[in-house]
Amino acid sequence: MAAGSEATTPVIVAAGAGAEEGEHVKPFKPEKAKEIIMSLQQPAIFCNMVFDWPARHWNAKYLSQVLHGKQIRFRMGMRSMSTVPQFETTCNYVEATLEEFLTWNCDQYSISGPFRDYDHSKFWAYADYKYFVSLFEDKTDLFQDVKWSDFGFPGRNGQESTLWIGSLGAHTPCHLDSYGCNLVFQVQGRKRWHLFPPEDTPFLYPTRIPYEESSVFSKINVVNPDLKRFPQFQKAQRHTVTLSPGQVLFVPRHWWHYVESIDPVTVSINSWIELEEDHLARVEEAITRMLVCALKTAENPQNTRAWLNPTEVEETSHAVNCCYLNAAVSAFFDHCRTSEVVEIQALGRDGEHMKKEELNVCSHMEVGQTGSQNLTTGTGKPETASPFGPDLVPVAQRSKEPPSERGGIFGSDGKDFVDKDGEHFGKLHCAKRQQIMSNSENAIEEQIASNTTMAPSQTFISTDDLLDCLVNPQVTRIVAQLLIQGRSL
């Protein structure tokens, strides 16, 4: 079998049949678009939904005029076909304006400019994770040029969005986002997306190094995998989609994705949508952060750059992470009190399986599931007829392809994977996370000093409490099995 090439469940394309841009007719009303987003467990491309967005014309040249003279951080990577992923911790960075980027990208860069050390034929540049609130801090009126309200999220616009600008070959390593789902609007150029379903996680060899909150990376370069080192990757179900200007890609929760620019200049805008499941996920992420920071800092206190992703700018001290963990737990219990029914997950008797003891979602999620009994999901077979008629069309399953024909854009043939028929909560809400932490920090410190007994939602969690859970025999058994399995591969 070709590595990660066969998909048992197809990607879905939501296309507005007969709705040409000139007709100004959108195939889905906001309520229906949100119903699709909250129901589908498959990636989907929405077409003809953003033709009237002012941001539709935000190409790199226009943005260079809007952001005239503003310094932006670009990640510099090598144009290579190495089997090792180019994580952000291994890249160099350049501070430059968009004008300087466009000049360099046209092979007209100066020997004295910010890109002087980077041969355009050997390097790519990527201005990724650029938050609107920082990028356009003095031009907040531009937030209204992005209208996620058309997808059923009233009031959501550029304020909850990020901007991505890259050159040919710029890419994001394969990863999954622990929080939320993702809507990605392609503005200029095309991007190729390699997606893998959540059930393929064991075949993607997940790692938390480099550490970035809510990003679980894969050890594999999925466009040029080392199958001798990672043989299980051959079992992965690859879904490949080329996203073109004017299209919006929906990436469901926990879908792995590797994204690469396949045109000279690409511009994308995305927004991570919060989900009900995020409340528990934040607690899990807080535990992960606490463990990773404690162990890696003890290992090498002077070199956090080797394991901490550059996007993580917050302090990594044990005290701060304790506050973060307590804030996440407190928020989870607060949510439980305000929700009529909460999803509860319990560790299986053997510690080998997580089973859902009760699965009832809140009212806003129930709306999203209404009438979706025939939708394609990750657990059932796709129906031949779409419940949304001709505007929701399955993409044909790809044929098996040898690895040499599935390489990245710098592979031997250089061919594009254009489909003939047709990027996390923690990063996006950094300010909100800091506010939650600051609000809870004083209460935690007061409790430590008084050592008083408080309600469950206010109970202080000590390092010993966390360790009691982590070294529980059931947990250590799983960890031991994973360690042994990893060493034996």
UniProtKB/TrEMBL annotation:
Gene3D superfamilies, A to Z: Cupin
Statement: the UniProt record of this protein carries the keyword Transmembrane helix: no
One Gene Ontology term, aspect cellular component: cytoplasm
Pfam families assigned: Cupin_8
Keyword terms of this UniProt record: Cytoplasm
Domain (JmjC) ranges: 124-288
Keyword Cytoplasm assigned: yes
Region span, Disordered: 370-415
Subunit-level organization: Interacts with CRYAB and HSPB1.
Primary role: May play a role in cellular stress response.
Name of the protein in question: HSPB1-associated protein 1
